[in-house]
Fold:
Amino acid sequence: MERDEIAAWLRLSLTRGVGNTAARRLLVAFGEPRRIFEQPAQTLQICVTAAQADALLSPPQSLEALTQTTWQWLQDTPEGAPARALVPLGHPLYPLPLLNTEDPPLLLYFMGAARFMEPDVLAGMRCLAMVGSRNPTPQGQDNALQFARALHTAGLTIVSGLALGIDAAAHEGALDSAAGCGPTPATIAVVGTGLDRVYPRRNLGLAHRIAAQGLLVSEYPLGTPPLAANFPKRNRIIAGLALGTLVVEAAPASGSLITARLACEQGREVFAIPGSIHAIQSRGCHALIRQGAKLVESVQDVLEELQWPATTPPAQTPTEPTGCETTHPLLDTMGFDPIGLDALQARSGLDTASLQVQLLELELSGMVGRLPGGLFQRMALA
Structure:
């Protein structure tokens, strides 16, 4: 797009009181944004209220500065850096699945591998959203990693929100997949800030990896800070890009349940992995399952529900613990629910020193995870 066209799109998106719905009505009536701002107030009132029409005829004070910032961001891409794009409604790069949602974004900012910013590539990708707790159990973290790895190996692009916990593990699993350098993005991170910022900062390295092997996507202008209200809103994009949403772990009031609800409202599949009845991170998933979400025990459960073609590469599925994991007697004593040291000592009959040594060995081998509150949990390995 030329600079004046970018300015017109930004002006439409920034106009106070004119949301996406009103903006779409204006675009249907007048075509491109520049023509909207050529209309008198009376003509605009065919589509919007008098107050909205007045607002449209007064350019926002921040428009010129944001236009210049956006123009420079698009033009001044350093050599070897990820490609950048501003994608409005109707653009060839605009993801088609989002057009079938109730509230498609007016503008999308893209940053990532240049080979993925082609209309045929984006049209051909099929996505699955994976979301969950920012404070997962060790088992939940591992489930997200293993499921994402297997699902991307099967040909699905993993969409999540770059948050700590399950989101980050899902992105990492997709990036670690053997198909990580395939013809479609390994993973897409839909963020709640401008693309010139990374939140949380702890995921800065992960964001760089996603930009190399996938895409970062935002509907928010450059410079937008991490405002709390933006993150639930961006969840509709996570759900809207995907064929379905897999919730790995979620507390009862988790934002992940918002994503699942939006996916259901958009007619997409909802999947949930059950967990321990004693873990608060499992209660949101159990509630979803009671409401009709597909209970997921393996990657194959997801692929079958999506009627994924049999020609895709075989997926490595997280399975029941087998082999070396069952050779340690303390694991059978633990069971699969979180357990404290005193309860485990009473079950096993071991003295404190021996028990702590064995737990440390199992923890270092990845067979046991340590939870907050001095609890331990047996890990189901893939």
